[in-house]
Amino acid sequence: MTTDDPRSPGRRGADLAARLDTLRWNGLHTTILLALGAGWLFDSFEVQLFGSAVGPMGAHFGASVFAQDAVLAVWLTGILIGALAGGYLADRYGRRRLFVLTLLWYAAFTVLTAGSPALGVVYVLRFLAALGVGAEYAIVNAAIAELMPARVRGKAGAVVMNFWAAGAVLAGLLAYLLLNTLALNDDVSWRYLFAGGGLLALVVLFFRRRIPESPRWLASQARYAEAEAIVARMEAHSGRAPGTANAAQVPTAGAAPGTANAAQAPTAGTAPGTALSPRQALGELTRHHRGRLALGAVLDLSEAFGYYGIFALLSVVVLKQVAIGHAQVPFFFIVGNIGALAGGLAMSLVLDRLGRHRTVAVSYTLAAAGVGLLAWATTTGSAWWVTLAFIVASGFATAAWTSAYPTFTELFPTHLRAAGVGFCVAAGRIGAIVGTLSLPDLATRIGATASYSLVVACWLAGVAAIVIFRLRGGIDAATRPLEAATVPNPA
């Protein structure tokens, strides 16, 4: 049975994908976007809570600067492991069933953190909560790419990523309420922060119940009847009769001559329905998609080193130097992340129009410039200049990393997409751990300028990666069907 036969697995999967790609935007798409974005919101909520809670918590336990930084390092290690495990599980068992599990896991261990009797218990509970958040990285990115129409897939993915900044603003407001308005002391303020964060996460369950399984994933498992039912339901939401679009109707935007389209291109390496072990999944990724895997790993590592490293540097070293106290820290991060939200949303408007490669290269370059501005502001010793520079730097940095995730997520085939994203995220968390532990220490020994310089170099490494990928013939998947973008490229 050839792929031209309408009964063939390749053709059936391609037709389902084509129908998804040509759907009009509807309420179900909006629900999916909100529910998936909420997972990103609470990851951000956690990181920002650390910035607001680390001072009061450290004071409560009498922790050193290194011990305070270690809480975030433990958190990042959990995300690393969770991303690898979650990516494999999402490719093996599906996107939908892990949505609820990872959210409940995160919420439970976050609430338990509030009752920690010792710093060692905080480490253990933060690690366990991070496993759920790490899994979210792989699941959310895979699902948003597979469920959204091709023409707006990049914009939708970027908007979901921008829930990070919204979560940061929410965390800052909660911290400001608890630390300033309610005037709680250091012994209890950080406990309320974690308890509130965990309980708020449960609100997302209301939205996630309506997210369907990815029809693309179901097709990759040869579960065509289930995939057909979901696509038909999504078509009904769009006001279209089921089955009225096919693969031939979906243009492969910008495709080079000879590039396969959704109807022509079976996924390389594995027959539909084949279950892979973690070793087999990694083997297929490295054999057929090593350039894409390298691109995603470098982009994620460079942004994570810079973002988390700057976050730790500001929280532990810089804010004290410019006389921003515990009570003012939440306000500092609120205004900074308003800038982040503006920068990320502005980028989302151009990601599909300008293409992935150009947008990533420009955004990463601007992120490096933003860190340079922040370095200058720090030398002035002015809290106002540091705050203004942080707003600008956050905007550019958010534009950069929110453009990166849709870019490399689209390049992996469906049966390996979550695993590929999980590997890239894990590589990124290594950079985040190194940045978190090294940048504040380096700043205390030889000054903040050296730490800022390393961050600039990391952002520029991301620019180099996307330029090399482009020069070697890497695919720009903007507005293309996923099935065309994931064809292995010999270059």
Secondary structure layout:
Blueprint lengths: L8 H13 L5 H35 L3 H29 L2 H18 L5 H29 L5 H9 L1 H19 L4 H16 L3 H4 L6 H6 L3 H14 L40 H11 L1 H32 L7 H20 L2 H4 L1 H25 L2 H27 L4 H33 L1 H24 L10 H4 L6
Task: Provide an overview of this structure.
The chain has 491 residues and is mainly alpha-helical. It has helices at 9-21, 27-61, 65-93, 96-113, 119-147, 153-161, 163-181, 186-201, 205-208, 215-220, 224-237, 278-288, 290-321, 329-348, 351-354, 356-380, 383-409, 414-446, 448-471, 482-485. Helix 13 (290-321) runs antiparallel to helix 17 (383-409) and helix 18 runs antiparallel to helix 19.
Share of helix, binned: over 70%
Total helix count? 20
Silhouette: globular
Q: Separation of termini? A: 30 Å
How do the helices and strands follow one another from N- to C-terminus? Answer: HHHHHHHHHHHHHHHHHHHH
Residue stretches low in confidence (pLDDT < 50, at least 5 long) are 1-6, 246-269
Number of strands: 0
Approximate strand percentage: under 5%
Give a short account of the largest sheet: none
The averaged pLDDT comes out at 83
**Which structural category fits the helices and strands?**
mainly alpha
Rg for CA atoms: 22 Å
